[in-house]
Amino acid sequence: MEYEINEFDPQKATDEFWEIYFEFTETNFRYHNPDDPLPNREVVIQRQKTEIPYYHVKRWLAITPENKVIAWAGFGAGVEGSSDYEENKHLCNMNIAVLADYVRKGIGTDLLKRVVQEAQILGKTTMEVSTDTDPGRAFLEHFGAQLAIEAAENRLDLEDIDWDLMQSWVDESSKRAEEVTIESFYECPEEILEEYSELYTEALNMQPLGDTEHRANIDGKLRRELEQVLKDRGFTNYTLISREKDGKISGLTEILYDSRESYKILQELTGVRPEFRGRGLGKWLKGKMILHIRDNYPDVEVIITGNAEANSPMNSINERMGFKKHKAAGSYKVLTEDITKRLEI
Ligand SMILES: CC(C)(COP(=O)(O)OP(=O)(O)OC[C@H]1O[C@@H](n2cnc3c(N)ncnc32)[C@H](O)[C@@H]1OP(=O)(O)O)[C@@H](O)C(=O)NCCC(=O)NCCS
């Protein structure tokens, strides 16, 4: 099989290039997600071009002599300067996709070599990768990667929602925790920036993380930078927080929305501080958020979220809302040294 592996820089890509790129990504997307609408092209280009601060990214494409893209690989790793660098400086991420008609020909392995060489150059000793396909799991296990946590993409069709139940969650919880108020924001207000960033970090790290090694540490400065990245990618980020009588923030939930892909909302992080649990705050926040979605985004048909299988409290709330498992996903990790030996590079 004849093909070349070339590095791909979205900042320099021409219109002709994007054509062959989309032929690949859309064929691949249809194969793995036959029931979903294709991603909006303008959105894809914008997100590919958005640079993430303190994050080094490399991308490669495998291209045939007929100028057909048949596979893709991506590599990402934190670089010095951000608050979460220290605890994650040994880590990197990767992703590889080969078109269904071209699998089991060694193309994935060839791309993996590029990715691993990049990890070696940067001194990243552990590679983390997620996959939602069985061939992906088999490929990673072949190279010695180990399952670090089992997760799933869960989805909720808006037409399946029991709106009376959602309203009752809001009504009952607000009575039960009378002294608590719910506030909302798109951009974190300056006066709670540090406190909120601390809670956000805590909520990310409190989730069941299995044997994964990445840990959050988002300070106010990084928070502002991440807010800008979401804006640059075209997302609206809406957050609800619960506040205790003494002003302390006890919980949060947030969503992402892009009007160019208005059929869906991404339900992102939800968390309640341990000392404030057991008072219905999680149900209140999630119930209030879903009513907000109904009232503000009339085109939304589905809410998409991701959860660790071991996250019983979150999965219990989600199941009662009507979320159903859409796709299983496994997070794997492997030592760069071990994979280097197996690849004989
Ligand atoms: C995973 C993927 C990238 C593999 O690409 P590929 O080009 O087929 O991989 P290779 O041909 O280099 O396979 C290397 C080895 O991995 C293992 N492997 C790959 N696919 C497998 C499968 N479907 N079943 C069992 N073993 C498999 C085999 O041991 C294989 O060697 P062999 O063919 O000599 O037995 C491809 O299947 C894919 O794009 N999957 C969807 C995306 C994905 O899940 N990516 C996440 C992984 S980073």
Total beta-strand segments: 12
Average pLDDT number:
97
N-to-C CA distance: 21 Å
Sheet having the most strands: 12 strands, mixed
Structural class: alpha+beta
**Number of H/I helices:** 11
Give, in order, the helices and strands. EHHEEHEHEHEHEHHEEEHEHEH
Shape: globular
Radius of gyration: 21 Å
Instruction: Please name the CATH topology of the largest domain.
Output: Aminopeptidase
Unreliable runs: none
Kindly give the count of domains. Answer: 2
Helical fraction:
25-40%
Strand % is 25-35%
User: What compounds sit in this structure?
Assistant: coenzyme A
CATH architecture of the largest domain: 3-Layer(aba) Sandwich
Task: Tell me what the structure shows.
By secondary structure, the protein is α+β, with helices and mostly antiparallel strands. It has 2 domains: 4-124, Aminopeptidase; 153-330, Gcn5-related N-acetyltransferase (GNAT) (Aminopeptidase). It is built from 11 helices and 12 strands. It has helices spanning 15-32, 41-49, 85-88, 107-122, 134-142, 163-176, 193-206, 220-232, 281-296, 312-321, 336-343, and strands spanning 4-7, 55-63, 69-78, 91-98, 126-131, 146-157, 181-185, 236-243, 249-257, 264-272, 302-308, 324-335. It has a 12-stranded mixed sheet, with helices on both faces. Strand 9 and strand 10 (264-272) form a beta hairpin. Helix 4 packs across helix 11 (336-343). The longest helix is centred in the first third of the chain and has 18 residues, at 15-32. The protein is globular and about 65 Å long. 29% of the residues are buried. The mean pLDDT is 97. It binds coenzyme A. Coenzyme A is lined by residues 95-98, 103-109, 129, 131, 133, 135-136, 138-140, 142.
